[in-house]
Write a sequence for this structure.
């Protein structure tokens, strides 16, 4: 039985429930693979920061479709083999590689009547508490955003280049949630150790990516763990994390899917690093894949599907900042009819 594939680009209208005023639409690419009547689904959420677009991803995947028809999934090792061998057709698009890889994992698990978590990790999936993000906001906007997240266990606050911590203090005064701050590479020239002490005093648990990729800083005096995001993109980057960061953020769409994410997870554990799994603006298809990695990370930041209004998939159920696993096989997500 051979694989067949279908590549489609959907345009889910994104409503930023907690970051209003930003772009209204996001374009993601969805992949459907089939073998013996069993269907696997994958997704790419291209991001301009990594020079990716939906059109480019779609084009790359269309080129790989014909090649894929000569392959079949016999066991989970075949998924990893296809991940490696298809790369010359997809490079440099890790987003395209991610979409296909996730679809193949979904298919492989469904062929065995089990979840991807069971297939990849040997364990049933458990609920995942996820950070929900508050974007850079005016003081007037913050009150409504904090109220919307009442009862949520984890909140991440975006910080701008001014390194103004008033928003963090504002949120801390109004919630008992565990907090993190994401500086999005914006704190060049700032005294990071002093800022970390201020954040620790407020009750923040960690700081994410304060400097641009490639910009070095002595973080040994930091009062907080510091996680790499843009400084750790693919599996090879993990080797450069010790001594520079406390841990790193795994994003499937930037590393190329579940296959490399699992490798990053294993290597991070070997190096004694802390880890989180994150997302872009994604439907429940890609969030369901991220939730597999979240089974073994310290933190999860998987609110992407909650931020879009017309999610084309049903997947993990989001309730007050916690993702609950479905009972379906594979990734546990199904396309919504006419979605």
């Amino acid at each position: 039985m051979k694989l067949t594939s279908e590549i489609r680009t959907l345009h889910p209208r994104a409503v930023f429930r907690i970051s209003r005023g930003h772009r209204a639409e996001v374009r993601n690419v969805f992949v459907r693979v089939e073998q013996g009547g069993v269907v696997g689904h994958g997704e790419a959420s291209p991001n301009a920061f990594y020079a990716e677009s939906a059109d480019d991803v779609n084009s790359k995947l269309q080129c790989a479709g014909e090649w894929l028809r000569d392959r079949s999934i016999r066991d989970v090792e075949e998924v990893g083999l296809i991940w490696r061998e298809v790369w010359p057709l997809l490079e440099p698009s890790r987003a395209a590689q991610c979409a296909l890889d996730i679809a193949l994992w979904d298919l492989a698990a469904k062929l065995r009547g089990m979840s991807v978590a069971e297939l990849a990790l040997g364990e049933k999936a458990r609920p995942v508490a996820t950070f929900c993000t508050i974007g850079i906001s005016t003081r007037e906007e913050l009150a409504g955003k904090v109220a919307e997240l009442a009862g949520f266990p984890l909140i991440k606050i975006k910080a701008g280049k001014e390194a103004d911590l008033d928003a963090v203090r504002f949120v801390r005064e109004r919630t008992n949630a565990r907090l993190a701050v994401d500086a999005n590479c914006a704190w060049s020239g700032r005294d990071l150790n002093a800022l970390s002490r201020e954040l620790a005093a407020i009750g923040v648990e960690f700081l994410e990516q304060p400097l641009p990729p490639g910009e070095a800083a002595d973080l040994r005096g930091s009062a907080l763990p510091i996680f790499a995001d843009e400084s750790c993109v693919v599996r090879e980057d993990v080797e450069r994390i010790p001594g520079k960061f406390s841990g790193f953020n795994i994003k499937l769409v930037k590393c190329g899917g579940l296959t490399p994410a699992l490798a990053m997870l294993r290597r991070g554990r070997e190096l004694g690093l802390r880890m989180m799994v994150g997302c872009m603006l994604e439907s429940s298809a890609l969030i369901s894949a991220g939730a597999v990695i979240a089974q073994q990370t310290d933190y999860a930041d998987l609110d992407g599907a909650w931020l879009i209004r017309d999610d084309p998939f049903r997947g993990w159920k989001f309730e007050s900042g916690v993702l609950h696993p479905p009972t379906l096989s594979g990734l546990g997500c199904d396309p919504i009819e006419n979605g």
In short: Residues 94-111 form the longest helix (18 residues). The domain at 128-335 is CATH 3.20.20.120 (TIM Barrel).
